[in-house]
Design brief:
The complex is a heterodimer of chains A (114) and B (116). By secondary structure, chain A is mainly beta. Chain A has no helices and 12 strands. Chain A is globular, with a radius of gyration of 14 Å. In chain B, strand 4 and strand 5 form a beta hairpin. Classes of the chains: A mainly beta (114), B mainly beta (116). At the A-B interface, strand 5, strand 6, strand 10 and strand 11 of A face strand 5, strand 9 and strand 10 of B.
């Protein structure tokens, strides 16, 4: 079974629109960590945020915000006032305290149209 | 800049050949992980090396092997290449000195391998 599910394969929005990328995870560990990465066309994965399972406080960083809800096992990512430079593939990932690997979702390809 | 470099950038091989991919990290961290990212997919964990020993492996056959050197550089070797091995290969080094699970992984730019 997939540990991380990103149901949205592709999303297109017009510049300045808000967009939310969904992430649902599955784990039996009580301690775990959730991440979001951005992968531009160049291919390098760029770290965006880390969240641990004990911290459900939502976080905002500029135009980016994250909503972590343990009750629904979700860790969603919202971009406010999207820009063309936000066009990329975004990956959600899970790391369990009992393991040493990251489990990635299949990614959501975001296209921001000028 | 993540401080993680990989070489070569691109590589074309034919089925049955062997390939070696390289990775180095400026952080000098003693842990390195390798991931395979097929087209349109998320990265899949191949294995991790810690202090020059394999420290966990994903669902990959033994023809995928690795080495980590005292200077913390690393190699991924793939023998008997198959068409399905065509992918972007990423190496990653954690940001901090504590457990890997806690720290974000810093990824290199990847090596794109094409098997014909």
């Amino acid at each position: 079974a997939q540990k991380v599910t990103q149901a949205q394969t592709e999303i297109s929005v017009v510049e300045k629109e808000d967009v939310t990328l969904d992430c649902v995870y599955e784990t039996r560990d009580t301690t775990y960590y959730l991440f979001w990465y951005k992968q531009p066309p160049s291919g390098e994965l760029v770290f965006l945020i880390r969240r641990n399972s004990f911290d459900e406080q939502n976080e905002i960083s500029g135009r980016y915000s994250w909503n972590f809800q343990k009750s629904t096992s979700s860790f969603n990512f919202t971009i406010t006032a999207s820009q063309v430079v936000d066009s990329a593939v975004y990956f959600c990932a899970l790391s369990e305290d009992t393991g040493n690997q990251f489990y990635f979702g299949t990614g959501t390809s975001l296209t921001v149209i000028p | 800049e993540t401080g993680v470099t990989q070489s070569p950038t691109h590589l074309i091989k034919t089925r049955g050949q062997q390939v070696t991919l390289r990775c180095s990290s400026q952080s000098g961290h003693n842990t390195v992980s390798w991931y395979q990212q097929a087209l349109g997919q998320g990265p899949q964990f191949i294995f991790q090396y810690y202090r020059e020993e394999e420290n966990g492996r994903g669902n990959f056959p033994p023809r995928f092997s690795g080495l980590q050197f005292p200077n913390y550089s690393s190699e991924l070797n793939v023998n008997a290449l198959e068409l399905d091995d065509s992918a972007l290969y990423l190496c990653a080094s954690p940001s901090g000195k504590t457990g890997v699970s806690y720290n974000e992984q810093f990824f290199g730019p990847g090596t794109r391998l094409t098997v014909l």
